[in-house]
Amino acid sequence: MAGATMNVRDFILGLLVRQPMSGYDIKSLLESLSWLIDVPSYGSVYPALHALLEDGFVSVEVVTSPDKPPKKVYSATEEGERALQEWLAHMQETEPSLKSFLMRLFLADNFSHTGLITHLNRRRLQVKMNHSAFEKLATAEAGDGDLGERLVRDYSLAIANAELDWLENVLERLS
Amino acid sequence: MAGATMNVRDFILGLLVRQPMSGYDIKSLLESLSWLIDVPSYGSVYPALHALLEDGFVSVEVVTSPDKPPKKVYSATEEGERALQEWLAHMQETEPSLKSFLMRLFLADNFSHTGLITHLNRRRLQVKMNHSAFEKLATAEAGDGDLGERLVRDYSLAIANAELDWLENVLERLS
DNA sequence: AAGCGCATGTAAAAGGTTACATGATTAC
DNA sequence: GTAATCATGTAACCTTTTACATGCGCTT
After folding, report:
1. Which residues of B touch A154 (CB under 8 A)?
2. For B116, which residue in chain A has the nearest alpha carbon?
3. Interface list for B 89-108 with A (CB within 8 A)
4. Which tens digit of pLDDT belongs to each residue from A120-167?
5. A122, A142, B37, B68: most buried, per Cβ within 10 A?
6. pLDDT digits over A6-38, tens only?
7. What is the dihedral of CA B78, B82, B88, B93, to 10 degrees?
């Protein structure tokens, strides 16, 4: 769960390849996704930015504004872009979680066309597998299991169906 | 993200209140939910079990089977059940993430009827809020944003709609 | 006897949160 | 003058992962 293969640092790098931002901007952006993914605290985003800077993956520029306090805007360097590509490639096989799927999806522009399709397909297969597994359970155990189990099973089936529909729709549009 | 208010330890206690299980069983159960939530590693579930034992919230019993290696089956004690109730009550206001919603949902039997309805409603309101926010963004920015942003927005809307439908359906059935 | 699924455990290292400290700028 | 939003940062503490170590029982 923590200390995972996929850390905040790498996702933030991806965000900065998309466009220059400050630590505060990054936190705000992630906050808007909070109902789907966990949002890192400032105590984790600022140190990540410092580490990225130390590694030469990003550069800083202080931007002053007439009506706001000054902010440090970070941009990805060419070396940072290369590092992101490496991370994206290395991530291929691992991490089947919703969170990592969404992070990758948000970084769609950094994938090649076929790379993106591969990722969507991978998720599709995964959701499909889980969907089948839950369906089998649902018919085998019928009304079996306690309320919580039945609710989660039911919820999973409903969400999996919606996600599958969406994935297939997007995949079709992209082809 | 890690070291969060909601730790594995508490969720495992909830699982054990539902029914006695071994560390291996717990891991397997969680594995089946991996496409929605992060699964803790053994290096986190076994120590959690030991801590729960030390606190007197669970008890152990070694169960031998003719065709399988012996296993340690943990059961929640009465004190453990009380602790879970406390945790469930304390959790009320905090943690709006999908993960914590699902963990609570899985523990549905430990809620009172009205308590469960409250929790489902809370999630409904939250998803609805995020849905509205994304919809506003979608109309305001129209085709704005890069591909990743548009995909995540679109994905969120689709999933939120499915979840909202499901929540309303369940809420209706429970009333 | 090798390999696999079941089963439990630990220590070091990594990564994250909490709590705190600080300060600019706008609006009331 | 004070509350709110914007903005950055640190250190102690906590939790988790990683990597390793071990062993039973069944099948090939």
Report:
1. 166, 170
2. A148
3. 96-99, 102, 105-108
4. 988 898 888 878 877 776 666 556 678 888 898 899 899 999 999 999
5. B37
6. 589 999 999 999 899 999 999 998 888 888 888
7. -170
